């Protein structure tokens, strides 16, 4: 049976993939959007919501990675988190480009409609108003995307720092293992030396005992059988 932590990691990964695909689909809808500006604004709102959900799931996965007991699994999950963050940053770049393309297309379409007929003065005023509105919307959207990308960069830097710290921990642990290995080898040599000395001591005791018994037998022989 899978551990609850493993199940949570699997769910996070599935949700991240799901939100990533939904973001990509919405970005494609923005590329294909021909207006009006309100439709584009609605699509951007949906994209922002999906990005928030995606970011939340990535943060959950990162937290799960930090809670892993095994260092190897921790590093593997942190690498996955870094890959997801890079993908989200790429999606944000695509989102910005799609917005620019769409708003330029909407602006050109509005210009074409205005040039088809009507009062020239009114056309100029309407065109200026439309351009101002479109420019304001583009600026606001770009600022929002810029803020999101800045946050993403900061999170990537934090993840990178975590990876660096983890690498240092692994190196320190490796040095400790090397030191322990040297101590174990020294202990093994001492035990081997002790065993050899113990064998030598037993042999000396045996020889001393044999000599003692031989001496006792010789004395008893001289006293009991002096004629021999």
UniProtKB/TrEMBL annotation:
InterPro entries named among the record's database cross-references: Sec20, Sec20_C
Keywords for the protein's UniProt record, in alphabetical order: Coiled coil, Endoplasmic reticulum, ER-Golgi transport, Membrane, Transmembrane, Transmembrane helix, Transport
Transmembrane residue ranges: 203-220
Residue ranges occupied by any Sec20 C-terminal domain in the UniProt entry: 134-224
Topology in membrane: Single-pass type IV membrane protein
Pfam family name, one: Sec20
Residue ranges of coiled coil: 37-87
Subcellular localization, as worded in the UniProt entry: Endoplasmic reticulum membrane
Family: Belongs to the SEC20 family.
Name the UniProt record assigns to this protein: Vesicle transport protein SEC20 isoform X1
Gene from which this protein is expressed: BNIP1
């Amino acid at each position: 049976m899978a551990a609850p932590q493993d199940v949570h990691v699997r769910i996070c990964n599935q949700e991240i993939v799901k939100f990533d695909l939904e973001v990509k689909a919405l970005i494609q809808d923005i590329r294909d959007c021909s207006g009006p500006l309100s439709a584009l604004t609605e699509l951007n709102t949906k994209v922002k919501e999906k990005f928030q959900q995606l970011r939340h799931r990535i943060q959950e996965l990162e937290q799960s990675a930090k809670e892993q007991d095994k260092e190897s699994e921790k590093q593997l999950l942190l690498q996955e988190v870094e890959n997801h963050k890079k993908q989200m940053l790429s999606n944000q770049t695509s989102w910005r480009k799609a917005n620019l393309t769409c708003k330029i297309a909407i602006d050109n379409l509005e210009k074409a409609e205005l040039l088809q007929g009507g009062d020239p003065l009114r056309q100029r005023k309407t065109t200026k108003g439309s351009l101002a509105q479109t420019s304001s919307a583009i600026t606001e959207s770009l600022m929002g995307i810029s803020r999101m990308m800045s946050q993403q960069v900061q999170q990537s830097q934090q993840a990178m720092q975590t990876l660096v710290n983890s690498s240092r921990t692994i190196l320190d642990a490796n040095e400790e293992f090397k030191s322990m290995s040297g101590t174990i080898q020294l202990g093994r040599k001492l035990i081997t030396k002790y065993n050899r000395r113990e064998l030598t001591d037993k042999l000396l005791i045996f020889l001393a005992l044999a000599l003692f018994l031989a001496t006792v037998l010789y004395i008893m022989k001289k006293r009991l059988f002096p004629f021999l």
